[in-house]
């Protein structure tokens, strides 16, 4: 089991390099953008990128998941057919979707409540989505082949282009928010071009109808689940746009992205987790491995959550020069949502852990149920709480929906692929998180939160992990030895 856990940790670390850079781009750009753009402009940016997330799902409609599934069990037989069939289909439909979006971009922009003088941003949006979609299956193939280093290098190139162009266009040429979209579009095109040798290596001009039917049967049921999951992630911004104003969306978007650390950790884990459990499902001790993975995930995730929650305000309000803070003053009022967003992503990570049994047993119907209920809960709670609590209501909607998804998927994965998780440790960690969170918010809203109390809460949490035997001495020694092994 230790060798398998080490295998996952290595892939997680390498995929983490590119994920770290991607999230760091978001983190670096957000403080940078707040120094140049108004809350309204940041709101427009956040709103459009929410729709990009939806359209990304529609463009790929589950074919990436289908490719991973059938390529992983093909044993290199018919690999070109398995690659070419979904790739040609996705590119063809992508051209059709893009044509429609280009043709009706004015009407669509109005429906999205994008101001008339920013309607042209939708043209950049379409370019970004098309070329990102054209790269998804090639990236999935790299993951399946465990070419994690190549994957990471290409991602880093993409991120670097995006970052440098944003800085040059905004700082050097005083560009409007167009610069964000131009930079992203350029990076997406360059990434696709870099992947073309990988694409043509496995591409041949043929669509295997038998494989296509299987992939559509597997992938299309994934579409409602993916759309519902995207609703959970980003529907709060369009709803905020309709119920409040662009400035509120700007504050929310800015502070939401300060949850980078948990998004980063979950993103690193997700890239390595799916290929890992698919290739190790036949191991005799697979369920024992999966149970241990959840515990380790919870330990690391909880520590990240507590540290960032306690000190995010110090980071955001850090004075960089001449009274300017890292995050511009006009956005700091949204900081209280950050711990809620971090906890939401921790539950999302638990949800990802529970996907193993569903994929292994091919019980794909569970995904639309879990994410569908999560999406409905998200929309309902957003509509209920935003008029009352504003951005805090949107944050709680995200938390409630991720918790619902986590619990429902846990039920279905246990029904079809029972795993005896380390329940005492998992519930102890959750209990400690809520206890620390209760103390934190009491001190915050009473105006008594200071550095001393933050350090006490952090030390108390870390000591509790040992006192309640969530972390045991023998496991520390075993894990340390595992990581040292070659």
Q: What distance lies between the first and last C-alpha atoms, to the nearest angstrom?
A: 15 Å
General form: globular
Please give the largest β-sheet. 2 strands, antiparallel
Structural class: mainly alpha
Please mark out the parts with pLDDT under 50 across 5 or more consecutive residues, or reply none.
Answer: none
Number of strands: 2
Q: How many individual domains?
A: 2
| SSE pattern | HHHHHHHHHHHHHHEEHHHHHH
| Overall pLDDT level | 89
Strand neighbour order, sheet with most strands: 1-2
**Secondary structure: helix percent:** over 70%
Number of helices: 20
Strand content: under 5%
Q: Cα-atom Rg, whole angstroms?
A: 22 Å
For the structure shown, list the relevant keywords:
two-stranded antiparallel ribbon, 20 helices, 2 domains
């Amino acid at each position: 089991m230790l060798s398998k856990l080490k295998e996952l940790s290595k892939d997680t670390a390498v995929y983490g390099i590119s994920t770290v850079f991607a999230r760091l781009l978001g983190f670096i750009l957000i403080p940078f953008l707040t120094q140049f753009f108004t809350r309204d402009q940041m709101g427009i940016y956040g709103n459009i990128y929410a729709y990009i997330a939806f359209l990304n799902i529609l463009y790929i409609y589950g074919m990436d998941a289908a490719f991973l599934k059938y390529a992983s069990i093909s044993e290199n037989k018919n690999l070109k057919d398995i690659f070419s069939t979904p790739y040609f289909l996705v590119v063809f439909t992508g051209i059709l979707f893009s044509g429609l979006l280009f043709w009706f971009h004015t009407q669509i922009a109005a429906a999205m409540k994008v101001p008339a003088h920013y309607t042209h941003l939708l043209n950049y949006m379409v370019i970004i989505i098309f070329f990102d979609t054209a790269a998804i299956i090639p990236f999935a193939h790299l993951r399946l082949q465990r070419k994690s280093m190549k994957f990471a290098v290409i991602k880093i190139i993409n991120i670097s282009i995006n970052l440098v162009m944003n800085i040059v266009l905004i700082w050097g040429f005083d560009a409007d928010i167009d610069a964000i979209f131009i930079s992203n579009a350029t990076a997406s095109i360059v990434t696709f071009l870099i992947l073309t040798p990988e694409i043509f290596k496995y591409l041949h001009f043929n669509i295997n109808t038998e494989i296509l039917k299987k992939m559509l049967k597997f992938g299309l049921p994934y579409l409602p689940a993916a759309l519902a999951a995207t609703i959970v992630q980003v529907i709060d911004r369009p709803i905020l746009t309709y119920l409040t104003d662009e400035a509120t969306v700007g504050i929310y978007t800015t502070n939401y992205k300060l949850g980078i650390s948990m998004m980063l950790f979950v993103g690193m884990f997700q890239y390595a987790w799916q290929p890992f459990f698919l290739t190790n499902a036949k191991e005799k001790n697979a369920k024992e491995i999966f149970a241990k993975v959840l515990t380790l995930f919870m330990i690391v995730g909880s520590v990240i959550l507590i540290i960032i929650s306690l000190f995010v305000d110090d980071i955001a309000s850090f004075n960089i020069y001449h009274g300017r803070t890292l995050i511009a003053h006009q956005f700091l009022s949204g900081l209280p949502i950050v711990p809620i967003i971090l906890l939401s992503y921790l539950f999302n990570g638990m949800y990802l852990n529970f996907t193993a049994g569903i994929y292994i047993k091919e019980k794909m119907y569970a995904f639309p149920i879990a994410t569908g209920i999560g999406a409905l809960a998200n929309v309902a709670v957003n509509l209920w709480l935003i008029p009352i609590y504003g951005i805090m209501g949107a944050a709680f909607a995200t938390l409630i929906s991720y918790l619902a998804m986590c619990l429902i998927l846990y039920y279905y994965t246990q029904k079809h692929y029972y795993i005896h998780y380390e329940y005492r440790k998992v519930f102890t960690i959750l209990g400690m998180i809520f206890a620390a969170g209760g103390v934190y918010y009491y001190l915050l809203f009473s105006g008594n939160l200071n550095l001393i109390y933050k350090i006490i809460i952090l030390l108390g949490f870390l000591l509790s992990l040992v006192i309640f035997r969530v972390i045991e001495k023998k496991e520390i020694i075993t894990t340390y030895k595992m990581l040292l092994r070659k």
